[in-house]
């Protein structure tokens, strides 16, 4: 009990001295109850009806996982057999269905970010959603906005999108809308500040309120506004409390300020207490097991007991289930109302196996039906693979290739992996070409077209003499192959992943920003003998490449990221000019790791209680390089094309009639309850004749449980179901609806001034003004496909939020009275046009 009180007192007591915040963060009790609203009303009404008909143990069943490997999916809840409602199936991950077959391996998040294409982001979400639905999955565990990418070595950055919160926010929203349009609930994860793998299970991240809002919370706000059905709280602590029992981040920010109406699930094992998590806003415990006797779980029977004792009020339990059911009903619309049965097992590739592998008492049955869900998705995978290639250098007209006389393809990263693309479980090796990182964010490849295969095929068509060497440490062989080739293409990699796999000493996070497997030496060796050396990078993020940029014999450099199953075909499309490169770097390429400012904490001074203050504030990636006046190798947003573009006529329209900003206010209704609970002990113990499977997690209380209080162990504020104030920046999903009013429309005219068709990615940056703001921040982008000589006007919408800062005192967004500028160009640095931004509409 002492421990419990300690936990509850942590948050209200926090004051971040280093950032000068003058008020302690608002406490987050009680946990806000869902109330429907914008986009949720119909789902909410259906959920109310369903939840009202459930008993206490049935409700608890839907909130608690049955245990790791208890059922067929990586996460499965209990079910409601009385009403014929099967258990929820939750499955990784952000780039495709994990742990099965006959599925696609899509390009990683970081690649779709590099396309800067809302259309491709959306379509990728739709096709992933179709695959999850086809396997009978209810919840896809993605997309990822945490890590955001505070540090470039972050092991899971590639699962997400970009260290820029605006780009990540757009990618989150489009991906979520895509997935959910196909009848599958998306999950915005890992909430929040899970920025590194080292110490992730206990690191305490100290953050100030303004940085939280302007950087890390931003893309989650977009996810909530897009209607995301679920959010996964992360492993780490934030300002002293674990993310899955953190009333500031979950209750106050997510459920109150952002008015999130869906449910919060724990990362696997990220729940630490029964009451702390329930009152701190958790709605679903995953995978459910992991607690002492008698329940073997922190929820399940333990939650039922806490409700019977009054330590968790009925309204809080009802709210958990309402949120879960509303998310489910919300996505079942249009052509996607059906709910196929689960027809795969995450735990075996065989047709039959134990139905409940965690138990030695399980019966055996058919667990894999091998349903093929790939559809025609290879086409989009190839398109994204090609359109995410970032051309970083292209000199002496090295690219596109045009029937070269000879070609040497050099490096293990061009090759098929011996034993097949899935030879290493969860991609925990680099023996051939790398097309995704490692860890739980992976999927099995149905096949993987290696670059060597695709290029050899092209060479045969063109009568190009093709040579191919493997063995990155045999530099003599590489030089011999390269020395006489008209083009020497060197493939190199640097991978990253999740910390349950350590690869070449890298425990998830990359230990450094250099290439793996002797890659830098390989490039140098080839470039020392071949004046047309083309470098292809399959990396998890930036690597140090200044030497290659400067090397006169390195004529071209392309970042291909983690492109998924069509890797070689997509790359060949770009190398041969079938696709004119249009990818733009979603991160900045520093000349050294120190140049990034913020650093990953590899060794904590106190490893038992690792803690790190994000005192760089919002200054990460390009914002930091600029502030510190450090020139990187390539800036955020960079990328070349085979054609050229000109920019003209920057015009700004102020939307003078926009309604004024209005702080939200008033009170919520009091907490509703649905149905009455039978609180007699007999109603909540396992029924006679029910055969339990040990150690499966069940919702029933043990027959010996004393279920009569005391309720007083829970803080009064946490069990108070009376009407609560709405926060000024809140009131609607994603925050105050007025934040998304468009205040300005900014347009430019773009012309293709070259000889081939191509797509420009114009980018809008805004200077908010003042030393405490970055020089400028991304606030718009578009794609303009143009034939030679063709012009097009593109328009960017600037919302109120886009030109606001977070005021920690008023707890609201405000447009500060500082002179503002807008910049339009083809990267953070390559600005073509600029203007002062007129004052906002008088009413604003
Ligand atoms: C809870 O779910 C489990 C697993 O699906 C099921 O066996 C059990 O009957 C459910 N309990 C209730 C009370 O519905
Ligand atoms: C539903 O499917 C039909 C037939 O395939 C199609 O014409 C229609 O556009 C689809 N509707 C939606 C909302 O996707
Ligand atoms: C299933 O097969 C894939 C290779 O296709 C392998 O990576 C995976 O480990 C296998 N899973 C199990 C549970 O055996
Ligand atoms: C089955 O597992 C239980 C623990 O869940 C253990 O006590 C029991 O000995 C096991 N039985 C067999 C036959 O392995
Ligand atoms: C590349 O070279 C290796 C080793 O000589 C060979 O096994 C492989 O078939 C070659 N790959 C291609 C695509 O030619
Ligand atoms: C170099 O390449 C040319 C044409 O591609 C060929 O004629 C010549 O024999 C090659 N020389 C060596 C040393 O391989
Ligand atoms: C960086 O890490 C990779 C992967 O472990 C390793 O191959 C490389 O040698 C390291 N670079 C340096 C400079 O230590
Ligand atoms: C570039 O390649 C040529 C061979 O064509 C070689 O002689 C020269 O030394 C190389 N330049 C550098 C800087 O390595
Ligand atoms: C909007 O207001 C600005 C001044 O803020 C003014 O210059 C402009 O003419 C107004 N536009 C319209 C359409 O009223
Ligand atoms: C923030 O809000 C407080 C209280 O409303 C106000 O006094 C202060 O001036 C605001 N700060 C800025 C920078 O506008
Ligand atoms: C803004 O544009 C003007 C020309 O209109 C140019 O002189 C100036 O350097 C530009 N400023 C920036 C920061 O790009
Ligand atoms: C599409 C399809 O084949 N779905 C099957 C999934 O598996 C269940 C059994 O678990 C079948 O009933 C479905 O037909």
From TrEMBL:
Q: In which pathway does it act?
A: Glycan metabolism; cellulose degradation
Q: Which PROSITE patterns match?
A: GLYCOSYL_HYDROL_F3 (PS00775)
Q: Name one process (GO BP) from the record.
A: glucan catabolic process
Q: Which SUPFAM superfamilies match?
A: (Trans)glycosidases (SSF51445), Beta-D-glucan exohydrolase, C-terminal domain (SSF52279)
Q: Which reaction does it catalyse?
A: Hydrolysis of terminal, non-reducing beta-D-glucosyl residues with release of beta-D-glucose
Q: State which Enzyme Commission number(s) the record gives.
A: 3.2.1.21
Keyword field contains Signal: yes
List, alphabetically, the InterPro entries matched.
Cellulose_deg_GH3, Fn3-like, GH, Glyco_hydro_3_AS, Glyco_hydro_3_C, Glyco_hydro_3_C_sf, Glyco_hydro_3_N, Glyco_hydro_3_N_sf
**Signal peptide feature range:** 1-21
Q: Which keywords does UniProt give here?
A: Carbohydrate metabolism, Glycoprotein, Glycosidase, Hydrolase, Polysaccharide degradation, Signal
The domain of life is: Eukaryota
Among Gene3D superfamilies, the record links this protein to:
Glycoside hydrolase family 3 C-terminal domain (3.40.50.1700), Glycoside hydrolase, family 3, N-terminal domain (3.20.20.300), Immunoglobulins (2.60.40.10)
Q: Name one GO molecular function term.
A: beta-glucosidase activity
PANTHER family of this UniProt entry?
A: BETA-GLUCOSIDASE, BETA-GLUCOSIDASE A-RELATED
The family classification in the record reads: Belongs to the glycosyl hydrolase 3 family.
Protein's name in the database = beta-glucosidase
